[in-house]
Amino acid sequence: MGRKKEFPIRLSVRYLPLLPGFAWRNRNLIKAAIDMAHALGLRVIAEGVEAQQQLDTLKLLGCDVAQGYQVCRPVVFERLAQFLEEHRGTLKNIVGH
Is 50 exceeded by the pLDDT of residue 19? Predict the structure, then answer.
């Protein structure tokens, strides 16, 4: 498959732990959403990733990108340029392939 389109699917993982049967149902739901997006040639961005276990699971399920406190705490605009310079070369898709 060619390069993935620039219209990503945003998948919020923040509220999924509240569903009954979290471990298996949510994993299957997330995997299905990721597979469907990839079948359409889209990138998947997981939002609200707050724990290393979530990040590890998303990586195993094939998620393209993650964002949330586990990846990086918020940065105020005035400090953004400095932050990017300090992290040059280390910023990447944390989950990406």
Answer: no
